[in-house]
Amino acid sequence: MAARSLELDGQDESGTLLMNMVLGNGARLYVDHAHPEYSSPEVTNPRDAVTWDAAGDLVGLAAVRRLAVDPALPPVNLYKNNTDNKSVSYGSHENYLMPRSVPFGDIVRGLTPFFVSRQVVCGAGRLGIGQDSSTPGFQVSQRADFFEAEVGLETTIRRPIINTRDEPHSTADKYRRLHVIIGDANLSQVSNYLKFGTTALVLSLIEAGLAPKIEVYEPVAALKTVSHDTSLTAKLRLLDGRRVTALDLQWMYHEAAAKLAQDTGVGDAVDGDGHTHDVLERWASVLTQLDSDRAAAATSVEWLAKLSLLDGYRQRDSLDWSDARLGLVDLQWSDIRPEKGLYYRLLSRNRMQRVVDDSAIAAAVAEPLAIPGPSSAGSASAASARMWWAQAGTPSFSTCPATGGSSGCPPGSPSGEPKP
Known about the structure:
Elements: E1 3-11, E2 17-23, E3 28-32, E4 35-39, H1 46-68, E5 77-79, E6 94-99, H2 104-122, E7 126-129, E8 135-139, E9 147-152, E10 159-163, E11 175-180, H3 189-207, H4 219-228, E12 236-237, E13 243-244, H5 246-264, H6 276-292, H7 294-297, H8 302-317, H9 324-333, H10 342-348, H11 358-366, E14 388-390, E15 398-400
Parallel strand pairs: 9-10
Antiparallel strand pairs: 1-2, 2-3, 3-4, 5-15, 6-11, 6-14, 7-8, 12-13
Helix pairs in contact: 1-3, 1-11, 2-3, 2-4, 2-5, 3-5, 3-6, 5-6, 8-9
């Protein structure tokens, strides 16, 4: 893969050459602190977001392959996850284009309950409870335990549910860049697709002034409650006195988004924008399965697929959640090598659903995205009428020697630096 342009950012204090590359597909690949980062090109619909994000995994894989053939280098591998299970977390960020005219307070009110509950659809799953995984167990999200504030600018300490960073890559007085830091790094294509697609629909609700009027009591605590409850039955307190589950919250947002899509026409299966209808259908299907058919949901929802795999090992070998062998399984899930990664083994056996095929992802490694003109629907209410990019400014990968370990990197080995 030849880069269209190459920048050499100089040397760090140790004399190591730092690379900053713009790849032929329009993405950016660079080194930040001690780990690689991949920033996808801007896209205008959730399917393309999934495609060019997955292309980044192949870019990382190509680097691993090249390192492996050099006998002078130690074994190195990349894992697409969000924590080393030793209290360090690194992000998988999303960025969304929004009109500057939307009051930021409306964004906070509209997004907070959604982000508290969104993890049931797109969490990547994690072994261990607490930032240092000191409490045995399994939880829905890899990131939830690392959030300590509701709103703020920080990304490495006191991480907020709603991040206020606003560095627009377009006309600043017309648009803002909404920087989302709360998401997990997904391998599951359906979880990734719904992460991008549902968030775009909720932002359209906020822009239209039609987001559900919901306020969660103590959102940071609620975020952790949802993540620690794999039964999805925990009740969250709302400020109006109601008590609802995370699934209830997601259904509230789905209902509002479906109505807006119907009223504007963008969700029509034939004459709509070509994306909103599918996002709404998949969203509803996954929510229904999470409530009534978890085996079916495990073919698309990443945290549940991982939990099912871990439960199989636990039952077969009578393992407690604290058993180090389960830590190895958790780590191997995120291995980006198809012959090693447990996610890829399930995918090859058709036990994980696809959104895009391998040929489209392979093409996206080298080919840039063709940005279309304005949506035929002429509306910013569609899941396809918003520009965003995945993983921008965040590491998709943590880096460890290929020898593995009981959980995260083995003792004494390097792990991903904390990263915004």
